[in-house]
């Protein structure tokens, strides 16, 4: 039992990566999985209008009768712990796990809906079970910061993981790292349950972790497409201990999803060795309490805020946050680049400006600003109660629009526009040889050029060359329209040599008329023609 628990720990209840954020998701009308849609957002988590009230910790202890009530017993299947595919409009079918409302810390799911934890980002995405989705009434009144959160998944939009052959979308797998990560995670759980063992790839210090994981992922996908043999769908059923809604699970280690390279979870009963012996892509999970502790140390002046990642709390800082005083880790940088400027249908950014995450976000009331800030970052960095104060403020100008530059520990950088530009600037030009630059020829040494114009039209090419001050020695044009030829002859006083249909021009003609300094090859009906 302890060994099974350790395997479950590795994947279940994945801690939200602060850099991963929630992209807009709405319910789709058609349940069948057939036509797949590629997905551009990083994951299928969404933010919509206010969800059911958060379940208070005290209520869990006092309302024992509510806890004892059976869950998901509406006769529609999909019980706690089952691996499923979920479908929401605009996204490919995405793998997830049915979880109890107790795990989410929120209210019970309505009849016909399920709480689903999505693989890939470990978040609890939700969508209303009613037809038409939760889109209505999302936009807040003018100037009022909007709080968004997550809805529940309708049962009609779920498929068992055994439908892998019809639900898996190869195009999305090739395009989206988050989708590859989700497939890897769900197949890790599936293979563990089914007792399927895949041959280990030889690995040494020079082995590329991403390649090893990619090979293993392909093996698992082939196994899934083949029907999860030999056990089949029966082998994917959750063990009895995972069906317990009050079973507590923790994730002790996680992997940074760099280039879709995800090291497998630690084997059961094998403790982690010293971090100096681990590969650099493996790091400890930085949970919210760790970030709170580090921020507290900054407030007590025991630590420099530039030494911690203000997005997630990691101490593995590789650069500075482009907008606010503080550090940023490589993982959060990757997510910032990917998610920072994704927008919802209402025109606001989908993610928190600080951490590119957040379940609940406050939207700026400035008409010229589309930024949002999550409640967690606001209360942690600005001060306790700052989020509630912002909600009551009308209109609320965000921390990028306000006249002040300092809000508690949240200090806006004075040179943030240039820093943001440099943050997104690519350095791919360093991978290539510098382009050859030829010095200009002095005007007195320039010679008239010879031009061959195909599909010449009304001699626009010659007109433009004259306007540019370029001397033309000879202009040979291929044109079949008599009216266009007449225009050219009249406008340019017979300086154009017309040679008829371009299909009759041979190599011999080119050698006879050339050599040419410029060939204009605009096709018929082209703007240049």
From TrEMBL:
Q: Which Gene3D superfamilies match?
A: 2.30.30.140, PWWP, helical domain (1.10.720.50), Vaccinia Virus protein VP39 (3.40.50.150)
The region called Disordered is annotated at: 14-76, 261-281
Molecular-function GO terms, alphabetical: DNA (cytosine-5-)-methyltransferase activity; zinc ion binding
Residues of the PHD-type domain = 297-429
Which residue numbers delimit the PWWP domain? Answer: 80-131
Please note every region of biased composition (Basic and acidic residues).
17-28, 57-67
Q: Which domain of life is it from?
A: Eukaryota
Its primary localisation, in coarse terms, equals nucleus
> Cellular component per GO?
cytoplasm; nucleus
Pfam families, A to Z: ADD_DNMT3 (PF17980), DNM3A_N (PF22855), DNMT3_ADD_GATA1-like (PF21255), PWWP (PF00855)
One record GO biological process: methylation
| PROSITE patterns xref list | ADD, C5_MTASE_1, PWWP
Compartment(s) of residence: Nucleus
Going by the UniProt record, its keywords in alphabetical order are: Metal-binding, Methyltransferase, Nucleus, S-adenosyl-L-methionine, Transferase, Zinc, Zinc-finger
Please name the PANTHER family in this protein's record: DNA (CYTOSINE-5)-METHYLTRANSFERASE 3A, DNA CYTOSINE-5- -METHYLTRANSFERASE 3-RELATED
Q: Protein name, please? A: DNM3A methyltransferase
The gene name on file is: Dnmt3a
């Amino acid at each position: 039992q302890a060994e099974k628990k350790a395997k479950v720990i590795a994947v279940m209840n994945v801690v939200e990566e602060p850099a991963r954020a929630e992209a807009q998701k709405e319910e789709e009308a058609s349940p069948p999985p057939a036509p797949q849609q590629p997905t551009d957002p990083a994951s299928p988590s969404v933010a919509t209008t206010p969800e059911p009230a958060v379940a208070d910790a005290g209520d869990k202890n006092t309302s024992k009768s509510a806890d004892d009530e059976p869950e998901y017993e509406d006769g529609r299947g999909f019980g706690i712990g089952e691996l499923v595919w979920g479908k929401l409009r605009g996204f490919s079918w995405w793998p997830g796990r049915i979880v109890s409302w107790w795990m989410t810390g929120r209210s019970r799911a309505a009849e016909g809906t399920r709480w689903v934890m999505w693989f890939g980002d470990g978040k609890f995405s939700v969508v209303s079970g009613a037809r038409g989705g939760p889109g209505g009434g999302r936009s807040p009144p003018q100037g009022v910061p909007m709080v968004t959160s997550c809805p529940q998944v309708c049962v009609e939009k779920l498929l068992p993981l055994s439908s892998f052959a019809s639900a898996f979308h190869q195009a999305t797998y090739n395009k989206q790292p988050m989708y590859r990560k989700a497939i890897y995670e769900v197949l890790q759980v599936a293979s563990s349950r089914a007792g399927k063992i895949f041959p280990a790839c030889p690995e040494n210090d020079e082995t590329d972790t991403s390649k090893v994981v990619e090979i293993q992922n392909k093996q698992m996908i082939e196994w899934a497409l083949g029907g999860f043999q030999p056990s089949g769908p029966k082998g994917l059923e959750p063990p009895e201990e995972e069906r317990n809604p009050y079973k507590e699970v923790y994730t002790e280690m996680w992997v940074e999803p760099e280039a879709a390279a995800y090291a497998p979870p630690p084997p059961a009963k094998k403790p982690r060795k010293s971090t100096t012996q681990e590969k650099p892509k493996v790091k400890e999970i930085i949970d919210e309490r760790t970030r709170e502790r580090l921020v507290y140390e900054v407030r007590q002046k025991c630590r420099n805020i530039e030494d911690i990642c203000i997005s997630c709390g990691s101490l593995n800082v590789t650069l500075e946050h482009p907008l606010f005083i503080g550090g940023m880790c490589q993982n959060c940088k990757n997510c910032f680049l990917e998610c920072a400027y994704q927008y919802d249908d209402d025109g606001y950014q989908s993610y928190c400006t600080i951490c590119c995450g957040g379940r609940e976000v406050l939207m700026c009331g400035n008409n010229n600003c589309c930024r949002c800030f999550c409640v967690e970052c606001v209360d942690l960095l600005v001060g306790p109660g700052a989020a509630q104060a912002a909600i009551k403020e009308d209109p609320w100008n965000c921390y990028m629009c306000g006249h002040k530059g300092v809000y508690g520990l949240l200090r806006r950088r004075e040179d943030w526009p240039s820093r943001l530009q440099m943050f997104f600037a690519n350095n791919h030009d360093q991978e290539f040889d510098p382009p050859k630059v030829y010095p200009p020829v002095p005007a007195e040494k320039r010679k008239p050029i010879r031009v061959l114009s195909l599909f010449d039209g009304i001699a626009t090419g010659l007109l433009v060359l004259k306007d540019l001050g370029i001397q033309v020695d000879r202009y040979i044009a291929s044109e079949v329209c008599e009216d266009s030829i007449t225009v050219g002859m009249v406008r340019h006083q017979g300086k154009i040599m017309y040679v008829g249909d371009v299909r009759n021009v041979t190599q011999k003609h080119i050698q006879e008329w050339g050599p040419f300094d410029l060939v204009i090859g605009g096709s018929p009906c082209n703007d240049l023609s």
